[in-house]
């Protein structure tokens, strides 16, 4: 029997129900189509939480039953009695400071991806972060995977004047694309000062060369007159009314809501509080981004890493508790990643050096909580580093297809891996 394209596209849910009898490629497309036909996905938002510097995944998700762990880390190893045990059978537990994440895990709202990485890991901060942001180790890929997602699946239908927001001044590469209009909370006064008109040159500076898809945050050097876009050109190039968007954010910052959970006082938590207010006030923002720095722990790692783990865990757990109190947590997912992990052996400075595979987290009301992948061996190593067990693009494809409701093939061509955390 010949099935028309229209018939197939309209029958996504039926194909999904067929399960194992359908080839994997067809199943992936069917899942995406079913999600796109499900109007409940249109209100879903993603919060990206980046751990900058290379988080030590081994002391984040600790393989306490592996005898090699204590031998490789004579001063940094964490005792079993101090951990938040996640699985006594396989012997893994969260860092002692991560009590908030431990509670999310118990409540099935935290997916822990063990051994996330990619083939032939790059140990350069800059290059590895590019790979994670772009969703590809191919040098020919120069745009961010969420920028491509927005251009492909959201640009025509999203009516929000603030569709993408990041807490920081430089636009993250993850949003880099010609028609992905990312706005910075911290940069508002840079491009729309109180004492200047909206047509200020500073607006044009921020979005110069957007027509060509260049990243204005990464472009340095003095401005040339021919590089400056007019406000009209900016709106045409990005599909964004930057003046209206700025006014919305400035009004929001002047009238902060009272959170329904207690956030820590660090910078990333401040960003999450702003994001929670935007979500509660239904501003239509689809993508959010915040980062936490300090993870390049080459020396005296123990105390600093403990503080960072506490900030990460408590800020995200407070954010989700705040949204749950507002009945908004089901449509919010937080993705946590770092550009690489650390080496298995501690160094002579009571720290760890650049490594490879690490741990990712997905948290929220739509997550199927649990452990995913397998913990990498501490004895079967790749030049002293953990071998990855889950390609991070499997996580991206799952996120795009099963949560955000679009075909991952349009964003990550030819990548077929999927997980089941959504």
Short description:
The protein has helices at 5-9, 12-18, 24-37, 67-72, 99-106, 125-134, 145-154, 188-191, 201-206, 231-238, 242-254, 267-280, 301-325, 392-403, and strands at residues 45-51, 61-62, 84-87, 92-94, 110-117, 164-166, 182-184, 287-292, 332-338, 358-364, 370-372, 390-391.
Describe the protein in words.
This protein is α/β, with parallel strands linked by helices. Helices cover 34% and strands 13% of the residues. It is built from 14 helices and twelve strands. Strands 1, 5, 6, 7, 8, 9, 10, 11 and 12 form a nine-stranded mixed β-sheet that branches. Helix 2 (12-18) packs across helix 3, helix 3 (24-37) packs across helix 14 (392-403) and helix 12 (267-280) packs parallel to helix 13 (301-325). The protein is globular. Residues 1-27, 34-39, 191-224 and 226-239 have low confidence and may be disordered.
């Amino acid at each position: 029997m010949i099935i028309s394209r229209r018939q197939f596209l309209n029958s996504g849910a039926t194909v999904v129900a067929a399960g194992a009898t359908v080839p994997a490629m067809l199943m992936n497309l069917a899942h995406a189509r079913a999600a796109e036909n499900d109007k409940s996905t249109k209100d879903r938002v993603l919060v990206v939480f980046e751990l900058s510097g290379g988080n030590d995944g081994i002391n984040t998700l600790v393989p306490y039953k592996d005898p090699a762990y204590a031998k490789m880390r004579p001063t940094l190893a964490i005792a079993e009695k101090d951990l938040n045990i996640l699985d006594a059978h396989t012997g893994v537990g969260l860092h002692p400071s991560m009590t908030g994440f431990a509670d999310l895990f118990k409540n099935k709202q935290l997916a822990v991806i063990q051994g996330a990485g990619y083939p032939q890991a790059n140990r350069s901060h800059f290059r590895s972060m590019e790979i994670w942001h772009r969703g590809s180790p191919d040098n020919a890929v120069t745009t961010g995977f969420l920028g491509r997602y927005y251009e492909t699946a959201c640009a025509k239908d999203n009516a929000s004047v603030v569709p993408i927001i990041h807490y920081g001044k430089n636009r993250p590469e993850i949003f880099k694309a010609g028609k992905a209009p990312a706005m910075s909370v911290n940069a508002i006064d840079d491009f729309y000062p109180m004492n200047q008109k909206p047509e200020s040159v500073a607006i044009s500076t921020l979005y110069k060369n957007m027509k060509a898809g260049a990243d204005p945050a990464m472009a340095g050097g003095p401005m040339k007159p021919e590089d400056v876009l007019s406000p009209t050109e900016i709106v045409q190039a990005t599909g964004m009314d930057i003046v209206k968007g700025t006014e919305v954010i400035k009004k929001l910052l002047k009238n902060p809501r009272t959170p329904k959970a207690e956030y820590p006082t660090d910078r990333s938590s401040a960003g999450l509080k702003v994001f929670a207010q935007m979500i509660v006030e239904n501003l239509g923002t689809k993508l959010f981004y915040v980062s936490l720095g300090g993870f390049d722990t080459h020396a005296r790692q123990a105390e600093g890493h403990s503080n960072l783990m506490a900030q990460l865990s408590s800020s995200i757990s407070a954010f989700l508790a705040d949204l749950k109190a507002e009945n908004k947590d089901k449509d919010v997912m937080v993705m946590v990643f770092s550009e690489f992990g650390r080496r298995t052996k501690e160094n002579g400075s009571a720290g760890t050096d650049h490594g490879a595979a690490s741990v990712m987290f997905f948290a929220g009301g739509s997550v199927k909580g649990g452990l995913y992948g397998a913990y990498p061996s501490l004895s079967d190593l790749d030049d002293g580093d953990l071998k990855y067990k889950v390609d991070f693009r499997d996580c991206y494809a799952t996120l795009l297809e099963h949560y955000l409701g679009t075909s991952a093939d349009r964003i990550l061509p030819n990548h077929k891996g999927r997980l089941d955390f959504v």
